[in-house]
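Fold it.
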Amino acid sequence: MKRQNVLSWDEYFMGLAHLSALRSKDPSTQVGAAIVDQNRKVVGIGYNGFPTGLNDDEFPWHKSEDYKNSKYAYVVHAELNAILNAISKLHGCTIYVSLFPCNECAKAIIQSGIKKLVYEDDKYAETDAVIASKRMLTAAGVEMVRLSKRVRISVNID
């Protein structure tokens, strides 16, 4: 008899997003994203970090009122990294992300042709950026699904 208690596809791909988030060096928020095509093949993956080629020891990792001395001026969000790292066209794909995307990432999601967004955390739901994000995603016909069951990844790195 086969094992019955296996991860659902949503749990599996969200787990991949969480695993990717472990690559982030951000001291306060680690976010991961995985993009999957209609055949359940992973076509893009990303985490929040600095652009390729930048030395992450030479740029700030903290929040600051001074934008140019804040991580926000330099960090590429997980969703955008996954889109930029994609190995195929993204039209009709699903993106799995551990934190609901900001308005800038929503623009990239819509522009890339992604049609479904699966997320877990919505801790910034009341911010202007997420309110604008939801407005755009809704207007563009992107399906938004919040997973009720939290996916947890346990990794021991020695």
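The helical segments are 9-21, 78-84, 103-112, 128-139.
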